[in-house]
C-alpha cells in the first residue's frame, strides 16, 4: 500500500478509509497518541493507537525518533489543534530509536548542540522549517530569473585565476606534501599538478559570468563560493552559496532596480509558499528574544519585517551623503563608534552600516558611488569627479540585522581605463586575457551584483547565526560530516 | 530609451514605432543588413541601415562582434526568412570589434578551437543554443522536484570525509608546500590546516543527503562534484554538476519509477521551452554526421530521439539477464569485445553497456541487482541469494550514445549489515558516525540515485564531447579561465 504524505493527509478535504502514513515519532503520549512527522510539513499528524490491542512490546518501541508505518482511517479529530487524525489499525516499527541514546529529545536544545548534530538537527521543528524555507527560496531565485529570460550559468568552482580579488583562496591540488615535485629552482612544480597549473576554489563567478552576459545578454550564477579567511563570526562561512546576475546594457540604476525587484520577488514567493514554516519561525524568534533586554529585541516581528521590505522602496543614498550623515551622527560625535568617521574616503565598517540602516533610515538602504580606491578594479569609474575624489559606480545593499546582503556595480567597459586600473593595482593582464577580450570585442555598458544566499536565508528565517541556515556549515576549524 | 529584447521584437504581434535594440553584430551584408543577436534567442533580427545617410566611418565600424544600439521602426520584412525587421533611424557603435582580430568569425570553427575560446564561443549559434538549453534543463530539474515537494539540499563541497568511495579526490588546503607544518612524527599536521583536519572536494553528496531524507522525507541535491581521475575522455570532467535525489520509504522499484519519470519530465520540459534551439542543434548534428560513414550516424534525428525517450518505457533488465544476453551475443562469441564476458560476476564495461542499449534493446535500459562485490558499501543486500552470488539493490540507467547516465540504489537500512560490510571493506566506522546514526535512530527503507547533469545535457543537445556542454570545462591539464 502506497503511503500518503502527512501534508496531504492534513490538507485532505474529506475523511478517508484505509490510508497509510510513514514517518518519525516526535512524541508519544499516554501510550496512545503518536505525533508523527514525515518532513513534508512542520505539522505532525496525530495517530491514535489502539493500545488495548497492541502488544506491550510494540508500545515500548514507539519512542521519539523511531520510524513507523501506520495504517488506518483518517477521521475528524476530537482533540483541539488538528482537523484530522489517524485511527490506527495496524502499526509497524520500521526502525527503532533508543530513547536513552537519541540526541534529539523533545526538549529545548542549544543551537550549539544542534550544530554539533547537524545530521540530526533537521529532525527538529525549527531546522525542518529553515531547510524547507531555504529550498523554496532557492527555487524562487531560479524562478525569478528564468521567467525573465536569464540564462543560468555554472561558472567554474576550480579556478586557475587568482586575480578575482574578492578574498583569500583555498588551494586545490592533487600534489602530495611529501616529495612534492619541484622545479630546478626548487619551487613547487605546478606543471605536474592535475591541471598543469596552480588552482584555487573560486571566490566569485563574476568575471566568467561577464563573458557570458556579453553574449547571452542576461545571465545569473547560483553556486558555492569560498573564502579561506579566519572570520569566526555569525555572518561568515568558509563555504557559502552566492547568486550573481550580470546584465548587458544595464547601468547602475538598472542594477539597483533589478536587485530590489529580485529581493522583493523572492521574499513574496516564500511568504506565499511557506506560511506555516514562517509562522513557526516567527514564534521561535519571539521566544528567543524574550531572554534579551528590551533594547536588543527586534522592533518588528518576522512577518511584519518581511512585509515591510515588500512594501517599502529601498532608500538610495550616495556614499558622500552617507559620510555626511555619519559624521554628524550622535555616536560619531560622542565617539561611540569604534572607528570615528572623520573624512570622505573612509571605508565603512559594520557599525556604520548598521547605524545607517537600523537607526537613521530604518529600512533597507542602497549605498552607491563609493571612493574608487576602496573598491574592486573592475568597477566603472565615474566621469567628472574631483581629482582625489574619484568614485566608482558601486552599490551595496544593507539590510537591518544582516548588514551587507548585496554588493554590485556597473562594470568598467572601457578597455583602456580598465587596463590602466589593473596596471596600477599590479593585476596581471596576461592572466586575465580572456576577461579583457570582453572589452576588446563588442564591449558595452553592463552591470551585476552578488547576493550571499545564506544572508538572505538569515533575514527571511529570523535566525541570527549563519551556521544555522546551511545544512553543514564550514568554518575555521570545522568541517565535520 | 529602454531597449527591447530581440526575442520580444521577433515575437511582436504588430509593427512598432520607435523601438531600440541592443546586441552584437553577427554579420553585415551589402553595407546595409545587420544580423543582430542579443542572446535572448538563437534568431537574429535584421536591421536595415540607411547607408546613404550613414557616414562611412560608422559603416566601417559595423563588424562581426561589434556591440551596437539601433533605434528605429519595427516593420514587416520584405525579405524571406523573417517576419519583422528594424528600419534603422539611428545607429550607435557601443563597442568596436576589430575584424582582423575577433576570433569568432562568421565561418565554421573546430570544436577544439572553440574550447580554447570558451569565453567567446557562447557568441556562436551552437553554443548560445547549448547554454540556453542547459539553463532550461537545470530549471526543469528544480521545477520537477519542487512541484513534488522535495527539499533542495546544498550538501557540502568541502568534505572532511574521504569514505564516500566514488572516486579519487582533490585535496583542499590552506597549508603551504614550503615549510608545511609537521607533527613530531614528521607527518603533515592537518590540525594546523584551515579546518583542523584533512579536507577534500566532494565526490558525492549522497551520504549527507541521506541524513536529510531521513528527516524531510524527499530531498534532492544539485551541485558541483569532483573527480581527480586522469580520464581524458569525451565523457568525463574533473568538475561536473550532479543531481542526487534521495527518498525515505522508497524501494528500488520506486527509485526506478522516479528516475524514469524525472528524466521524461525534464526532456519534455526543454522540448516545450526551447523548440528553436533544439531544432538548430538537430540541424547541427545532421550536418556533423554527414562527414561520418553511414554506419556511425545516429539512427534517429535529435528530436525523434528525444520523443522516443518520452514515449517508451525504459527496459528493466537484471544484471543476471544482461550477462546471459552478453554471453550469447555475436561480439562476445566472435571475440569482438575487448573484455570477453565469461561468467556471472564480471563488471560491465562501456562496450557491453553500449551493446545492450544500442544493439540489443535499442532503448534506454535500467540494469539492476548487481553483484554485491562490484558495488558500493551502502547498497542494500538482497535477501535469499545463493552464497557467492550475493547481489545488491543497485540500478544503472544506460542511454544510447551516452552510456551510464544514472547510478542509484536502495540503501542498506540495517545497521548490523551495514557495519559488517564497512568492516569487510576497511571503512572507518568512527569517521562515518553521523552516517551510521541514520541507521541507529529511526532507520527505514530508502533509495536514491545520482544523475550526471552534463551527460543529460549531452543527450538533449546531441553534442558528443562533454567539454562542449559546460561553460568552462575542467579536465586533466586544463583549468583555463
UniProtKB/TrEMBL annotation, chains A, B:
<dbReference type="Pfam" id="PF00152">
    <property type="entry name" value="tRNA-synt_2"/>
</dbReference>
<dbReference type="GO" id="GO:0005737">
    <property type="term" value="C:cytoplasm"/>
</dbReference>
<dbReference type="InterPro" id="IPR004364">
    <property type="entry name" value="Aa-tRNA-synt_II"/>
</dbReference>
<dbReference type="GO" id="GO:0004816">
    <property type="term" value="F:asparagine-tRNA ligase activity"/>
</dbReference>
<dbReference type="InterPro" id="IPR004365">
    <property type="entry name" value="NA-bd_OB_tRNA"/>
</dbReference>
<protein>
    <recommendedName>
        <fullName>Asparagine--tRNA ligase</fullName>
        <ecNumber>6.1.1.22</ecNumber>
    </recommendedName>
</protein>
<keyword id="KW-0436">Ligase</keyword>
<dbReference type="InterPro" id="IPR045864">
    <property type="entry name" value="aa-tRNA-synth_II/BPL/LPL"/>
</dbReference>
<keyword id="KW-0648">Protein biosynthesis</keyword>
<keyword id="KW-0547">Nucleotide-binding</keyword>
<dbReference type="InterPro" id="IPR006195">
    <property type="entry name" value="aa-tRNA-synth_II"/>
</dbReference>
<comment type="subunit">
    <text>Homodimer.</text>
</comment>
<keyword id="KW-0030">Aminoacyl-tRNA synthetase</keyword>
<comment type="similarity">
    <text>Belongs to the class-II aminoacyl-tRNA synthetase family.</text>
</comment>
<keyword id="KW-0067">ATP-binding</keyword>
<dbReference type="InterPro" id="IPR012340">
    <property type="entry name" value="NA-bd_OB-fold"/>
</dbReference>
<dbReference type="GO" id="GO:0006421">
    <property type="term" value="P:asparaginyl-tRNA aminoacylation"/>
</dbReference>
<dbReference type="InterPro" id="IPR002312">
    <property type="entry name" value="Asp/Asn-tRNA-synth_IIb"/>
</dbReference>
<keyword id="KW-0963">Cytoplasm</keyword>
<dbReference type="GO" id="GO:0003676">
    <property type="term" value="F:nucleic acid binding"/>
</dbReference>
<dbReference type="InterPro" id="IPR004522">
    <property type="entry name" value="Asn-tRNA-ligase"/>
</dbReference>
<dbReference type="Pfam" id="PF01336">
    <property type="entry name" value="tRNA_anti-codon"/>
</dbReference>
<dbReference type="GO" id="GO:0005524">
    <property type="term" value="F:ATP binding"/>
</dbReference>
<feature type="domain" description="Aminoacyl-transfer RNA synthetases class-II family profile">
    <location>
        <begin position="131"/>
        <end position="471"/>
    </location>
</feature>
